[in-house]
Amino acid sequence: MRDLVTFGETMLRLSPPDSERLERTDELEVFVGGAASNAAIAANRLGADAAWLSKVPDTPLGRRVVNGLHEHALETNVVWSREGRQGTYYLERAGKPRGSAVIYDRADSAFTTTTAQELDVNAVQNARVFFMTGITPALSPTLRETTTNLLKAAKQGGTTTAFDCNYRGKLWSPETARETLTALFPGIDVLVVAARDARSVLEFEGDPRQLAHKLGSQYDFETVVVTRGSEGAVGWHDSVVHEQPAYETDTVSEIGTGDAFTGAFIARRVAGDDVPTALEYAAATAALKRTIPGDIALVTEDEVERVRTAESDGLSR
């Protein structure tokens, strides 16, 4: 039985070097990244046996994505499509006041046509945990149905289901997201949501502790994790809320930080850690990810352990 199976689109990310503008750059750096595969790699690197399910165009760009994930020793289980394109996105990095900007170019990608019937549902039902994010149902009506069907299949197989709301305003409105996500909640055991999205998308009120308790109580989740950016996260489990501050970090790239956090949290829960300990590993992994260019948390278990216990080395929470 595999520890973790994830499902989602992985894209090619194209970025000008340093803080250059897209409109004048002569070169683009290429990275491979997507929420589901990022989380799977983070989990793998913390000792979990993880795999990624998806649908990918049988093109040079599609093969570039899969080959890029194989470079990180991630098991891939993909449907190769003769139709559709490879999703990409562009990231223009900058500090204040300009700020970084993301441009998606993923419409009509091969992934948007994925149905549950095409996928290896047995892999989902034979995993200990199945993970998706709210990005997937935001991409197409077909994927909304597929998301529902995969969650149902996971529950039928006795698989624990984990879901990160991961709201993206460029993909859908808060109203559509709220209607879609809350309809999925009965099929979800472990929910991860940013505090800002719990308020603006799900329309809950309160501080992160209150948000976690209200969500857990109303929807009967097993576990709720509410992330709160630079202030860390809180986790609700067995009607108890646990607080986890963020670890101090110098940010090189914030992309993929949430995915690293979630992948590490799942990996440690699968390994048998309680929620407070899993939150420590998740926060440490997220802090390390912020020091690493690209979308993927290229961390080791020893590094994460060192950060988690490093107050004596001068690294504070």
From TrEMBL:
Q: Does the keyword Zinc apply?
A: no
Please list the residue ranges annotated as the Carbohydrate kinase PfkB domain: 1-297
Q: Which UniProt keywords apply?
A: Kinase, Transferase
Gene Ontology molecular functions: kinase activity
UniProt KW Transferase keyword: yes
Instruction: Specify the domain of life of the species encoding this protein.
Output: Archaea
- InterPro entries in the record, alphabetically? Carb_kinase_PfkB-like, KDG_KDGal_kin_Halo, PfkB_dom, Ribokinase-like
The protein's matches in NCBIfam families, at most eight in alphabetical order, are given as: KDG_KDGal_kin_Halo (NF041332)
Q: State the family named in the UniProt similarity comment for this chain.
A: Belongs to the carbohydrate kinase PfkB family.
Name of the protein:
Sugar kinase
Q: Please give the organism.
A: Salinadaptatus halalkaliphilus
- Lineage, highest ranks first: Archaea, Methanobacteriati, Methanobacteriota, Stenosarchaea group, Halobacteria
